[in-house]
Amino acid sequence: MTEGRIIKSLSGFYTVKTDSAHIVCKGRGVFRKRKVTPLVGDKVTITLNEDQTTGTITEIAERTNSFVRPPIANMTQAIVVVSAKEPDFSSLLLDRFLVNIAANNIEPIILITKADLLSEAEVDEIKAYQADYKRLGYQTYLTSLAGEDLSFIKNHLKNELTVLTGQSGVGKSTLLNQLMPNLQLETGEISMTLGRGRHTTRHVELIEVAGGYVADTPGFSSLDFTELEAVDLSSCFKEMNTLRQACKFRGCLHDKEPQCAIKAAVEAGDIPTYRYDHYKRFLHEIMTRKPRY
């Protein structure tokens, strides 16, 4: 028996990194019967075959978190990559990512890319958003990526399992290429009609970068709040999580209830109006979603 971590998944084969080797493994048939799928990031126990280079995954350790899309587990932080332009910055889309990440108890870092494409007026607008998110408690960076010193990102990666996520075309593969030039990951062009990049990442893999692991994934194909309950939504907004206990009524949804601390903070300007508008939009989505059976 040998312990390791799954660092790559491709077509039903899993590459497990142990203390001494990389072992290509299949999962035990019992996992299929239990409807359990090994995920990249899983800590596993394997048995080696006679060739000592292949094996079978026999046990999967308990996970601290897991995602279905992308299929990864045990992430400790997420870098949410959003572009300032091409595609245009969207605080609504950013907040969707942040809520999904917070719902999985993962700490987010916001990276706004393509600053070099902005006009002077657009730079001021993006920097205003950056200042808002910093004030609300999110580590937020603005970068052009190309030719810049990215040590500020490397400092965040050491000893962490980081999921790199964001919509297509925002610069995730470019970022990894900047951090590790020998990767030479394929980058996608932007479709001017759709405003979206082509999907260039075809499998899920943990890449060793700056003393930690980064999950190079196709990103979140769904940003619906399928698992999140309405009463828990405000806990996924940093600024609301600290205030929600001050509401008069227990289980306050911060919508139509009186003496709500969060609505008072919005009125006082402590919470940006657009953040509260996004909260109400997500709340409506959760309250009106179809029940699952």
How would you explain this protein's 3D organization?
This protein has 293 residues and is of the alpha/beta class. The chain folds into three domains: 2-62, Nucleic acid-binding proteins (OB fold (Dihydrolipoamide Acetyltransferase, E2P), Beta Barrel), CATH 2.40.50.140; 72-216, Rossmann fold (3-Layer(aba) Sandwich); 230-288, Ribonucleotide Reductase Protein R1, domain 1 (Orthogonal Bundle). The chain has eight helices and 15 strands. The strands form three sheets. A five-stranded mixed barrel has the order 1-2-3-5-4. Strand 12 (190-191) and strand 13 (196-197) form a beta hairpin. Helix 2 crosses helix 8 (273-288). It is globular, with a radius of gyration of 21 Å.
Defining key terms:
293 residues; alpha/beta; OB fold (Dihydrolipoamide Acetyltransferase, E2P); Rossmann fold; Ribonucleotide Reductase Protein R1, domain 1; five-stranded mixed β-barrel; two-stranded antiparallel ribbon; 15 strands; globular
Largest sheet properties: 5 strands, mixed, barrel
Q: Tell me the count of domains.
A: 3
- What value does the Rg take, in angstroms? 21 Å
Point out poorly predicted stretches. Answer: 188-201
**What value does the average pLDDT take?**
88
Strand residues, percent:
25-35%
CATH architecture label of the largest domain: 3-Layer(aba) Sandwich
How many E strands? 15
- Tally of contiguous helical segments: 8
Share of helix among residues? 25-40%
CATH fold-level assignment of the largest domain: Rossmann fold
End-to-end Cα distance, whole Å, is: 39 Å
Widest sheet, order of strands: 1-2-3-5-4
Please write the string of helix (H) and strand (E) elements. Answer: EEEHEEEEEHEHEHEHEEEEHHH
